[in-house]
Amino acid sequence: MTSNVNSLGQTPQIDLSASFKAYDVRGIVGETIDVGIVEAVGAAFVDVLGLAGQTVLVGGDMRPSSPEFIDAFARGAAARGGLVQKIGLISTDELYYACGALGAAGATFTASHNPARYNGIKMAKPGALPVSSETGLKEIQAATEAYLASGEVPAVDRRGSIAERDVLADYAAHLRSLVDLSGIRPLKVVVDAGNGMAGLTTPAVLGDTILPALPLEIIPLYFELDGTFPNHPANPLEPENLRDLQKAVVDHGADLGLAFDGDADRCFVIDEKGEPVSPSAITGLVARREIARAKATGEAQPIIIHNLITSRAVPELVEHDGGRPVRTRVGHSFIKAVMAEVGAVFGGEHSAHYYFRDFWNADTGMLAAMHVLAALGEQELPLSELGAEYEPYVASGEINSEIEDKAGAVARVREVYEGPEVVIDELDGTTFSAADGSWWFNLRPSNTEPYLRFNGEAKDRETLDSVRDNVLAIVRS
Fold first, then answer.
1. What are the structural domains, with CATH classification, of the chain?
2. pTM of the predicted model, to two decimals?
3. CA proximity to 285, closest of 388, 379, 195
């Protein structure tokens, strides 16, 4: 006999504010996230989004805790009337594909690039609309806390169901329909999956495990799915995690290298010399292709979104090609909201998140990688030369200063730089721009750590070094 109550065990003492973030849930397994919490989240997800009697998708990455978390979420969601479809091992952009293509809400268990002891939940509404603290996540937290306090999830009269579904083949076919790689020149590509989900999605999309072979020779690095990350952390944003890929590209004489993070929603690119291609350059390259494609269908002035830390080369290139650049804050929920609001065809961030209108305004590293492969394979130049026009400026990268009085530090910088020769805006943090266009820098305080983040760019290395050293001296004084 099936009970009409799901017991949640001994979890009410865990403070959920430690794991519920602005855009997702992320915590340490057994400390700030466990099976009981996850089951309560599944129930709350259905309640808050009104999903009783509707399809609810749930999958996860290769982390050791993901399978039991998928099952727990499914139990909670089904108890409250959700028609759960477990979609198994998935990349995060596979979830967005499924939510968009199937018109269903869903969740995936991942902690992206965080170490093995972490796991978390990224959630989306039907159509891949994001669930953030501003669009339901706070309410899901409150409902979860209520279930944990009571110690149980009571089942509704019309209890839901749990079934299984595979979306990998349809995901791969959809991406192939957006970028045709069948006619490019043969390319040798090293792919570092970092033992993450790209080890599953790369053979499906770029290989021949599901679809016909493309003119690509894929050289795999760390394709074995292993959430303990035995080779290096699955965070390509850190330069040391790219070293194996850089060496392999040169050793194999490859045309380029691709590195994905743990849940494979971000992609980083290495040229044939083993040098990183900046995400801003990739944003410019993909923007140019998407502008041309949109114009070919009659769109007069396609809109491209870029966050305020991407290179100034991006809006300059967009305007040159007849598009309209729109600058926005850092963060995927802001990008996705503006994408939808203005009908943008594409958006890019300095963190290697790339957003596509044809992908329900969601981010997908694999689709960005396919655009790079197409751009490279449709002409004869090596990537180092092809990409040079997209990086006319010198960038600092993110530099953190650990400081408690972040507002005071910014005020000191403002005192020095304020004047007719400098334009200052506060869209996200504070951005200082030379009126003659020779340099700019942004200071953004971290919301969770005692860090003030510096990002800058200039026309040449000497100018950048001078501005960077001066600003950091003021900040750290």
1. 5-166 (3.40.120.10), 169-274 (3.40.120.10), 279-390 (3.40.120.10), 394-475 (3.30.310.50)
2. 0.95
3. 388
